[in-house]
Design a protein that fits this description.
The complex is a heterodimer of chains A (150) and B (535). With 150 residues, chain A is an alpha/beta fold. In chain A, 42% of the residues lie in helices and 17% in strands. The radius of gyration of chain A is 14 Å and the shape is globular. The interface between A and B is medium-sized, with 13 and 13 residues.
């Protein structure tokens, strides 16, 4: 498949550098070529997504991994903005949260999250989870090729 | 003839028998007979008070047999108040009459109170001739009066002394009397203004009238009622009020029936009750806050701990064998510590969830729950080759998930703390009727179920019976038995949230039986309303 040779762009919206490090490591352990872009809060994420691609060289991500509790703009608000935007709404958004609360799960799906996963407490499980997410969304699931970008 | 000649004043037996004189003499004789037969004691004396005549009643009153014992002496000799008996002669002579009381000394020494009325007898020209006195024995009357006064004083003292306010009203509720306590209680300064008012004026608005007054015809005591009452200054206080309707009137002359209203000031108790209720509410709220705090805190603690745990694990993974043996050991300790803390926080969260994340109570078939639990514990049962037996368990009102957790914790414990012999666990159930007594369960009024989990394991020393239910209390070293010591604390909390209690009977090496009692809500037909805070 041609996809095997393409590199995937992933936007990670996460304010905790520790989590960023773990996810970076987990992704690196996979076989896929991924470019990880990191936004440290909600505003930065929206900035990245709505910025002219030409200027910064930023790519429209194939996948967004996002924490729920973020500074400045809460994860659900970012989710809402993305899903309101006809240019962005086709990008799958995976909510990666430490919260097990039912209401957080409901709230996320109500805002059209594509998937909600809880960060495991155990390192091995954490690594395995990121690997699974990557595996599923980038190889098993069929993604829109170029979205609405021309 | 009874008349004395000593002064010759009353009858002269030597008078000549002329016709008009005879007639006078007859009249005199009749009068003397009347005097002699009178029940009143009578006495005549000269102007100096020297006794010239006494009638039989006088002798009877003073207890003498013969006139001679009395005649020629002063009355002062026969009374205790001799001075007064002498001194009254002056006013008597001046005014012509005197009335007063003496205390008579009878011949045998006993005393009588006598009322005396004395007049000066004058001749035709108006000149004083002699003194006439009559006496009435008023000792009994005095005694009755005295005992009445004593009795009145006694009852008044009781009415005034009891620490309640007593008010008398007529049948229309108008106040005829109130005790000093009532005056103080209602802060009455002006008795004129207060008397005659209706008792309802002294009650805060919007309260029912007293029952005795309401029912009217039934004399009786109304039950104690707590009412808000009004003082004269307009302030309110709580009074415990009862009233008695009386048929015998003492209220007002025009109205024969009335009520006694008894008021006790219970403001202090009311205030204490209210304070208690307030404290209870505060305690409940602060308990809830504490639960919430424990939940939030432990949840938020997880985040940084996850980082610590993850990165020391990465350290171990990437650098074990590359540093020094000491460094490897340090990293191991850090990994183990982080893991243990993670488990503690997990348990703390689970513990606080019992209160904060409980579900509505519903009918739960405990037998079904037990089957699920045994399915979950299949591996643990097989591992130690345990024999599990059980009775049919009841259907109760409860939180299904929590009852599951409860049974699972107890059975898992029974398996975990097995001894040298093959583990045998029995789950039993017995119905406890209302008002029965069981040593562990204490006296209980509502019927309930006692469910027990009995094992043949290592047992528990009785001195630890209370401690094992306290959060994070462990009896064994981690090396022997793993666990944080949360399981039984969660069990206790679950049982208490269900309105029951949990206890254990055991001895070292004798096995242990855990009991918990759940109130039987289904039998009463009253499903327990779970308000989510009743833990």
């Amino acid at each position: 498949m041609s996809d095997d040779h393409r590199s995937f762009h992933i936007l990670l919206v996460e304010d905790n550098p520790g989590d960023v490090g773990l996810i970076r490591r987990a992704l690196a352990a996979g076989k896929l070529r991924t470019h990880l872009h990191v936004a440290h809060d909600g505003l930065e994420a929206l900035d990245f997504l709505t910025h002219d691609a030409g200027d910064s060289g930023a790519q429209r991500p194939d996948l967004i991994l996002m924490d729920l509790s973020l500074p400045k703009l809460d994860g659900c608000e970012v989710l809402w903005q993305i899903k309101q935007d006809p240019l962005l709404l086709t990008i799958p958004v995976i909510i990666l949260s430490s919260s097990q609360a039912e209401q957080d799960v409901l709230r996320s799906y109500a805002h059209y999250a594509n998937c909600y996963v809880t960060k495991p407490l155990d390192l091995e499980q954490y690594m395995a989870l990121i690997g699974s997410v990557q595996q599923f969304w980038l190889t098993i699931a069929k993604l829109p090729r170029n979205g609405n970008h021309g | 003839m009874a008349a004395s000649n000593h002064a010759g004043n009353l009858v002269s037996s030597t008078a000549p028998a002329k016709t008009p004189q005879r007639q006078e003499l007859e009249e005199l004789r009749i009068k003397e007979a009347v005097i002699a037969s009178s029940l009143s004691a009578m006495m005549m004396s000269d102007l100096d008070g020297c006794i010239t005549y006494v009638n039989p009643a006088f002798l009877r009153l003073w207890g003498y047999e013969a006139r001679e014992e009395v005649l020629g002496r002063q009355l002062a000799d026969f009374v205790i108040d001799a001075e007064e008996a002498l001194e009254m002669l002056q006013p008597l002579l001046r005014h012509g009459s005197w009335a007063g009381e003496h205390v008579a000394v009878r011949k045998n020494g006993t005393l009588r109170i006598v009322q005396r009325s004395a007049t000066v007898v004058t001749d035709l020209s108006g000149a004083p001739v002699c003194l006439a006195s009559s006496f009435v024995d008023i000792t009994e009357r005095k005694q009755v009066e005295q005992s009445l006064r004593t009795s009145e004083a006694r009852y008044r003292n009781i009415v005034e002394a009891v620490p309640v306010g007593i008010t008398l009203t007529d049948e229309a509720g108008f106040i005829a009397y109130y005790s000093a306590q009532a005056r103080e209680m209602f802060r009455i300064a002006d008795d004129q203004a207060a008397l005659g008012t209706n008792y309802r004026q002294w009650m805060a608005a919007g309260q029912p009238p007293l029952a005795a007054e309401e029912t009217g015809s039934d004399p009786g005591i109304t039950p104690l009622t707590e009412l808000r009452l009004l003082r004269a200054d307009g302030s309110e206080f709580w009074g415990e009020v009862t009233s008695v309707l009386l048929d015998e009137g003492f209220a007002t002359p025009s109205r024969q029936r009335g009520s006694i209203i008894v008021v006790r000031d219970v403001s202090d108790r009311k205030r204490a009750d209210e304070a208690l209720a307030r404290y209870a509410a505060e305690l409940e709220r602060s308990n809830q806050e504490l639960e919430q705090f424990a939940y939030v805190a432990s949840h938020d603690l997880q985040e940084p701990l996850r980082m610590v745990g993850s990165y020391v694990q990465l350290l171990a993974k990437d650098y074990t064998g590359q540093l020094s043996p000491e460094a490897d050991e340090y990293i191991d300790f850090a990994v183990d510590g982080a893991r243990r803390m993670q488990r503690l926080i997990d348990d703390l969260l689970a513990f606080s969830r019992v209160g904060t994340r409980g579900r509505q109570f519903q009918l739960v078939d405990c037998s079904q729950v037990l089957e699920e639990v045994l399915r979950n514990l299949k591996l643990a049962v097989e591992e130690c080759d345990a024999i599990i037996t059980y009775d049919t368990l009841p259907v109760v009102m409860g939180d299904r998930g929590q009852l599951h957790q409860l049974l699972q914790n107890l059975i898992a414990n029974a398996l975990k703390f097995h001894g040298a012999v093959r583990p045998a666990v029995h789950i039993g159930a017995c119905r406890q009727p209302a008002s029965s007594f069981s040593e562990g369960a204490g006296r209980s009024d509502s019927p309930g179920w006692i469910i027990s989990v009995r094992d043949n394991g290592i047992g528990i020393d009785p001195q630890y019976f209370e401690r094992i239910f306290v959060i994070f209390q462990r009896l064994h070293s981690r090396a022997h038995y793993s666990g944080t010591g949360i399981g039984l604390a969660i069990c206790k909390k679950i049982v208490e949230r269900h309105g029951g209690r949990i206890w254990v009977e055991s001895a070292p090496d004798q096995g242990a039986t855990f009991f918990f009692r759940l109130p039987d809500r289904t039998a009463a037909g009253q499903p327990l309303q779970n308000n989510g805070i009743s833990w």
